[in-house]
Amino acid sequence: QVSLVESGGGLVQAGESLRLSCVVSAQTFSSTVLGWFRQAPGEEREFVAAISWSARSSRYADSMKGRSTISKDAVNKVTLQMNSLKPEDTAVYYCAAGSAMFSLKPADYDYWGQGTQVTVSS
């Protein structure tokens, strides 16, 4: 079974930074992309950033370009560095794995973590 565990969320003030991490554990793993999504209360889950398993390619949501960096180590940890956080960044952030390279649709991802809460106060 595939397991994804997020960590690093918390309460911060606008303008501050957070680093989210996702550790992937699996007996076998066929996914080719690792991504981050977020979901605020009453809203749909939306794409944040993604990186290929090889870490050679990545993409970002327009709202994150210039403020975030997604990276992956040589084994199984994905990191999302977020800077200049805004109140509108408040949401539960989820790590996901899939095979539809850089898809922005949550339905195209096969495995999900439990999520980590990010709250940005003004």
Structure, described:
By secondary structure, this protein is an all-beta fold. Helix content is 0%, strand content 52%. It is built from no helices and 11 strands. The protein has strands at residues 3-7, 10-13, 18-25, 33-39, 46-52, 58-60, 68-72, 77-82, 91-98, 109-112, 116-121. The strands form 2 sheets. Strands 2, 4, 5, 6, 9, 10 and 11 form a 7-stranded mixed beta sheet that branches. It has a 4-stranded antiparallel beta sheet with strand order 1-3-8-7, with no helix packed on it. The chain is globular.
Summary tags:
mainly beta; 122 residues; seven-stranded mixed sheet
List the helices and strands and how they pair.
Blueprint: E1 3-7, E2 10-13, E3 18-25, E4 33-39, E5 46-52, E6 58-60, E7 68-72, E8 77-82, E9 91-98, E10 109-112, E11 116-121
Parallel strand pairs: 2-11
Antiparallel strand pairs: 1-3, 3-8, 4-5, 4-9, 5-6, 7-8, 9-10, 9-11
Output the helix-strand order: EEEEEEEEEEE
Question: For the residues shown, what is the average pLDDT?
Answer: 94
- How many β-strand runs? 11
Enumerate the spans where pLDDT stays under 50 for 5 or more consecutive residues: none
The description of the largest β-sheet is: 7 strands, mixed
| Amino-to-carboxy terminus distance | 40 Å
What is the helix fraction of residues, given as a range? Answer: under 10%
Envelope shape:
globular
SS-derived structural category:
mainly beta
Number of helical segments?
0
Beta-strand percentage range: over 45%
Rg value: 13 Å
